[in-house]
């Protein structure tokens, strides 16, 4: 095996409907990449085996993105049967994303011959202080049930943080920044010295910003009201808030920001309102993240909306933060995963 810095890393990024695969060289050049279909939250093992066979001898280690590490797995870890079983037991915390990650980990471990590392989206936020991560609920919920604010998109926030430091030519340890991952799912993070001290997502990826089809934060009393007054079950409410709300719910047009902006420009009042609601929440929470820092050295945008919707970025920065450098970077979770694999194996 080559030195850690030169490791060729197979990056496995499972989603609810697809599996993105790539091999990154020691210089982070993409040596191979492919996207294969997932089947009902599982992994098409034949397609994954085909990719692995075509890359036989072409990688030295594998890193798998796992959305939720639960209360115990708070940093990238070398995977084994015990780790995979633990992740399987907490799949209900991320039912769309953790099961395909578990399936991919098991398949890679069965193949053997190379180290496999699980990299968690929740890990970047595990450093949040209790003041930011503890809900004001009965202590039993926190201590015994593990209900706390975990945060998500950590791999993207971590990469944006490292990239920002490089762009500014300053050590990460010196910087205090707000990172904005705006895609179909969206979250912000307050990052001090390379460490997350606050974020907008919580116990699930539904808290915080308005998203493509997710509501973001709503008054919990609203959920009780629709269940009591309108007969929605817990499953109904979860489905509506996760898949039928956000930009789609307000605009009635789409959850895709491009389509909503186009409709708004064409005079569609509900589409224009959806954009206004999205921006209002975004601007307010950018300010909230800044409030958790001593100063703001930069605001970094990433993700499909963050990278491509200039009009949203222009409206997202509160007046009090005008003048702060605003940077835009392509979301590269694959580079962060490779970085964490090399860091862990080199330690």
What do you see in this structure?
This protein is α/β, with parallel strands linked by helices and 347 residues long. The protein has two domains: 117 residues, ATPase, nucleotide binding domain (Nucleotidyltransferase, domain 5, 2-Layer Sandwich), CATH 3.30.420.40; 159 residues, ATPase, nucleotide binding domain (Nucleotidyltransferase, domain 5), CATH 3.30.420. 41% of the residues lie in helices and 19% in strands. The protein contains 14 helices and twelve strands. The strands form two sheets. Strands 4-3-2-1-5-7-6 form a seven-stranded mixed beta sheet, with helices on both faces. Strand 3 and strand 4 form a beta hairpin. The two termini are 15 Å apart.
Rounded to an integer in angstroms, the radius of gyration calculated over CA atoms is: 20 Å
| Spatial strand arrangement across the major sheet | 4-3-2-1-5-7-6
So, the CATH homologous superfamily of the largest domain? Answer: ATPase, nucleotide binding domain
Fold-level CATH name of the largest domain: Nucleotidyltransferase, domain 5
Number of domains: 2
Question: What would CATH call the class of the largest domain?
Answer: Alpha Beta
Largest sheet: 7 strands, mixed
Report the total helices: 14
How many angstroms separate the termini? 15 Å
Q: Return the string of H and E elements.
A: EEEEHEEHHEHHHEEEHHHHHEHHEH
Notable characteristics:
347 residues, alpha/beta, Nucleotidyltransferase, domain 5, 7-stranded mixed β-sheet, 5-stranded mixed β-sheet
Task: Furnish the topology, listing elements before pairings.
Elements lengths: L8 E6 L3 E7 L5 E10 L2 E2 L1 H10 L6 E6 L10 E2 L2 H9 L8 H14 L4 E5 L9 H4 L5 H5 L10 H15 L7 E7 L3 E7 L2 E5 L20 H11 L3 H10 L2 H6 L5 H9 L3 H23 L6 E5 H6 L1 H7 L9 E3 L4 H14 L1
Parallel strand pairs: 1-5, 5-7, 8-11, 11-12
Antiparallel strand pairs: 1-2, 2-3, 3-4, 6-7, 8-9, 9-10
């Amino acid at each position: 095996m080559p030195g850690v810095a030169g490791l060729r890393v197979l990056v496995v990024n499972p989603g609810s409907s697809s599996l993105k695969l790539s091999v990154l060289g020691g210089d982070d050049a993409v040596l191979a990449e492919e996207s294969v279909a997932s089947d009902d939250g599982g992994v098409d093992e034949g397609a994954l085996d085909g990719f692995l066979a075509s890359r036989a001898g072409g990688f030295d280690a594998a890193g798998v993105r796992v959305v939720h590490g639960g209360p115990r797995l708070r940093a990238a870890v070398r995977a084994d049967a015990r780790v995979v079983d633990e992740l399987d037991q907490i799949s209900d915390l991320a039912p769309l994303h953790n099961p395909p990650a578990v399936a991919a980990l098991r398949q890679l471990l069965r193949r053997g011959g190379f180290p496999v590392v699980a990299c968690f989206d929740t890990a970047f936020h595990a450093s949040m202080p209790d003041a930011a991560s503890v809900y004001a609920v009965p202590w039993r919920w926190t201590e015994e049930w593990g209900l706390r604010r975990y945060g998500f998109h950590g791999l993207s926030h971590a990469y944006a943080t490292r990239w920002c430091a490089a762009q500014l030519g300053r050590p990460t340890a010196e910087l205090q920044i707000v990172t904005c991952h705006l895609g179909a799912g969206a979250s912000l993070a307050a990052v001090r010295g390379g460490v997350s001290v606050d974020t907008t997502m919580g116990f699930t990826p539904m808290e915080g910003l308005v998203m493509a089809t997710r509501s973001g934060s709503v008054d919990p009393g609203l959920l009780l009201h629709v269940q009591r007054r309108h007969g929605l079950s817990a499953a109904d409410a979860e489905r509506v808030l996760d898949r039928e709300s956000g930009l789609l719910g307000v605009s009635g047009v789409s959850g895709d920001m491009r389509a909503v902006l186009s409709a708004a420009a064409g005079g569609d009042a509900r589409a224009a309102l959806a954009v206004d609601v999205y921006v209002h929440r975004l601007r307010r929470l950018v300010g909230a993240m800044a409030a958790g820092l001593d100063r703001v050295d930069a605001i970094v945008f990433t993700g499909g909306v963050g990278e491509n919707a200039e009009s949203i970025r222009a409206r997202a920065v509160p007046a009090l933060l005008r003048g702060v450098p605003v940077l835009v970077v392509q979301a590269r979770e694959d580079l962060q995963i490779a970085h964490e694999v090399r860091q862990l194996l080199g330690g």
